[in-house]
Amino acid sequence: MSILVYNTLTGKKEEFVPREDKKIKMYVCGITPYDACHLGHARCYIVFDVIRRYLEYKGYQVEYIQNFTDIDDKIIKRSKELGVNPEDLAEKYINEFLFYSEKLNLKAPKAYPRVTQMMPQILKIIEGLVKKGYAYENDGNVFFSVRKFPDYGKLSKRNLESMTEEFRRIEPDERKKDLLDFALWKKAKEGEPYWDSSWGPGRPGWHIECSTMSMKYLGETLDIHGGGQDLIFPHHENEIAQSEAYTGKLFVRYWLHNGFVTINKEKMSKSLGNFFTLEEIFGKYSPMVVRYFLISQHYRSPVDFSDDKLEQAKNAFETLVDTYEFAYFIFQQKGVKSTSGGQLIKEIKEKFEQVMDDDFNTAEAIAQIFLLREKIIQLIERKDVSSLTPAVYIFRYLSEEVLGLKFPEPLYAKEINGSVLTLLEQREQARKNNRFNEADNLRKQIEKKGYLIEDTSWGPRLKLKT
After folding, report:
1. What is the maximum alpha-carbon separation in the chain?
2. What is the C-alpha to C-alpha distance for residues 328 and 325, in angstroms, rounded to an integer?
3. Pair 322, 358 in one domain
4. I need a surface site. Which of 86, 416, 445, 466 has the fewest CB within 10 A?
């Protein structure tokens, strides 16, 4: 079955067909590292991590690029407030992002290009736009002339008249020939970082950076360009205009945008002051619980944050983990390994792929994981180990490799304290001989060592106390 994706450019679902067979060029707008990473960041990069993982699962080679905007008005403003060097501030939050990316089990991109490393390429494109008549210089600044690009507004579905009225309410920039024009190069202000150019010292505007970095690593036409819905206008609209004006070619075939994280139905953002940092959230919930929560809704839908919903996600994820732990305990008891194959796997995989092929519907994919979990529990109750092994294999593979929900290492894969195993054996003997007081005392001794006991039809199973 072919994959359908919702293309923001056309406003409908389309069959996904990359330019090159089985090879995908994918670019996602990265962070501007001026402050702590928050839940909105996590959602965007988890969404596109799952999309990348699924495309790779389907046999595609994905060239995935994600940038860092490491020089920007926000970085300069924040560094002045803190009295630090802009470069040091950016480096601090880039390192923080990479730390949390690993915690959230995000696969590393092919490259993390930075704006400060791309100045020659940026200047080349701006100079090209000026020569072609799409851009003009004024007092050391260079602006893109929006009305010179006839397709402007095709991504955001806005017309020039409504945009002009909207921009009239903003303080006009007299350096521009038109209210709609946007900066490609900004003249340096005193005390700010700058780079030399033919128009004098300055730095690039926000939008030109992503066009340059994506084309540098992936070529002039991308298969997929992703980001949050807040980037559709003006950022991605401007990327299209400057890129297609420069190359004369289609810039992106499929535009994908994830929905917002909301707090009480209102978009979570730093500007509104209603955001939660990952550091705050990880103090209460594990990164995999956060990941589960953020893919529990379709990527284009908003995800409304609350402690209750994170608790529900925690319970759901722990249910999946416990099922895998139980199965691993059984395999250890029986000395078997989980393997692939079997009719059950075929049916579950087909249904899982069917919902993921429909615009990467992770909510329905998780539902299929839970249906498989129910089948695993039934197999455990029937003691059908031959069917259990392939079922557990695909259960773990789809959860971990495709959805990125990494399970902790099973307890029975670790070295369990020998004294605990001795106490457990003694308790089992006491129970068999009806010495229930002794068995209860042994259970309490085991609990003091950090373990709980679950009595199952497969024998007593140790679980870590949480």
Report:
1. 94
2. 5
3. yes
4. 466
